[in-house]
Design brief:
about 450 residues, Rossmann fold, alpha/beta, about 55% helix, 20 helices, binds guanosine-5'-diphosphate, Four Helix Bundle (Hemerythrin (Met), subunit A)
């Protein structure tokens, strides 16, 4: 998903991060590349235009936060705007009204509608609901059989639709039958065509007007890019859909449909299909998707957490020490205390952009109890030992272990971790990641 866009944006941001201060020209150049990257990802040109305009305005008019470099601030803004573009937060299926609650699935042939009906049944059942599958595509008898087979496979009841019956009648009868079966949610798999045509639309309108579905979901194939956006627009104009399920996201490296649909139709993407298997349907979270496009873990949460705990002056002082390699065990301990204030260390490491993929750091996972032990060990050292860890020989290690109620192995491990972290920090602060982890790491 979004591989090309991720790579392109990554290289734009690498360039931006190289600058200590960003000028209007730097931002302009960066945004030009972001624009190209979005167009190449097949995002609707009008959407791109507005997106770039919004980012530019925010980037130039922003208030400078000391804990982030200008490059990172631009990334944060792009992240925010990408999230907004895709609809801000996850929108759930609308399931309200008298039972059984009908939900209509609409879309063109081959978009993955029938498969998605099965996937939704699985998802709803996991949430404790009792789904009832209703095949209402009478033009393609194979579609009815396909859903019946899916029902058997999933052990979900399927309405025995008659291919000669009128789809509206099928749905009305299915409402009664579903209730008798003790089901609470009707998933109606409507007919598909190769193209949007009036006959199909009028049939869907008839079903909608009689059945009064609680939600109407358009199933669209992400791999068709802007076609999916246009299809969503036509279906929405006629049917006033409740949202979109974008299928085949697993095969879509560009992502144009996912990025344009909300903006063009005003309707949210509620779920995405990420594979052919029946458990491969996921709720769509714009914020998580934006972060994953930017390849940065949960940047936003990280930045927010960091901002709320880290004293910026202290962080600057710490950075100076790091640069001069004067980061002592005492500083290490203070950082540990800060990290504890921020929550779980593992979560934190995973949130730091680029760090979650770093094998060395993964091996460094320290559990929460360990943090307490580390603090005790460092507290048992003399001030000189804390400043010059190299003097801590065997007998000093024994003394420290005794004093802190730990073992010599614990002390050894801490010293090893400390030197490893020192190495990592040096590498990272040279490599342009400056600031993201600033003041955060032990
Ligand atoms: P319908 O004509 O709209 O009912 O489409 P189908 O449900 O028959 O699906 C068409 C094809 O798309 C089938 O081969 C499905 O396995 C495949 N498909 C559906 N959803 C996904 C998905 O999320 N990922 C992938 N890779 N394939 C999918």
């Amino acid at each position: 998903m979004f591989d090309n866009l991720s790579n392109r944006l990554d290289s734009v941001f690498k360039k931006l991060k190289g600058h200590g201060k960003l000028t209007e020209k730097n931002i302009e150049d960066g945004l030009k590349e972001v624009r190209m990257a979005l167009l190449e990802a097949d995002v609707h040109y009008k959407v791109v235009k507005k997106f770039i305009g919004d980012i530019k305005e925010r980037s130039l008019g922003q208030e400078v936060t000391k804990s982030l470099t200008p490059g990172q601030q631009v990334i944060k803004i792009v992240n925010d705007e990408l999230t907004k573009l895709m609809g801000d937060s996850h929108e759930e299926l609308k399931l309200s009204g008298t039972l059984p609650i009908p939900v209509m699935l609409v879309g063109l042939q081959g978009s993955g509608k029938t498969t998605t009906a099965g996937k939704l049944a699985v998802l709803l059942r996991k949430r404790g609901r009792k789904p009832y599958l209703v095949p209402a595509d009478v033009y393609r008898p194979a579609a009815i059989d396909q859903l019946k087979k899916l029902g058997v496979q999933l052990d979900v009841p399927v309405f025995p639709s008659d291919a000669k019956a009128d789809p509206v009648q099928i749905c009305q009868k299915a409402l009664v039958a579903g209730q008798k079966e003790g089901c609470d949610t009707l998933l109606i798999d409507t007919a598909g065509r190769l193209h949007v045509d009036e006959e199909l639309m009028s049939e869907l309108c008839r079903i909608r007007d009689k059945v009064k579905p609680s939600d109407i979901l358009l199933v669209a194939d992400a791999m068709t890019g802007q076609d999916a956006v246009n299809i969503a627009k036509s279906f929405n104009d006629t049917l006033d859909i409740g949202g979109v399920i974008l299928t085949k996201m697993d095969g879509d490296a560009r992502g144009g449909a996912a990025l344009s649909i909300k903006s063009v139709t005003g309707k949210p993407i509620k779920f995405i299909g990420v594979g052919e298997k029946l458990n491969e349907l996921e709720p769509f979270h714009p914020d998580r998707m934006a972060s994953s496009i930017l390849g940065m873990g949960d940047v936003l949460t990280f930045i927010e957490k960091a901002q709320s705990v880290v004293d910026e002056e202290k962080a600057a002082e710490l950075e100076k020490k790091l640069r001069k390699s004067q980061f002592t065990l005492e500083d290490f301990r203070d950082q540990m205390v800060q990290i504890r204030k921020m929550g779980s260390l593992t979560d934190l490491i995973n949130m730091i952009p680029g760090f979650s993929k770093n094998k060395q750091l993964k091996n460094l996972e320290v559990d929460e109890h360990e943090l307490v032990r580390i603090e005790a060990i460092i507290n048992s050292m003399t001030p000189l030992e804390r400043r010059q860890h190299t003097i801590i020989n065997g007998s000093r290690r024994k003394r420290i272990a005794r004093g802190s109620g730990t073992s010599v192995q614990d002390v050894n491990r801490l010293l090893k971790n400390y030197t490893q972290v020192m190495k990592m920090i040096k590498k990272i602060s040279k490599g342009g990641m400056r600031g993201f982890g600033r003041g955060m790491l032990p």
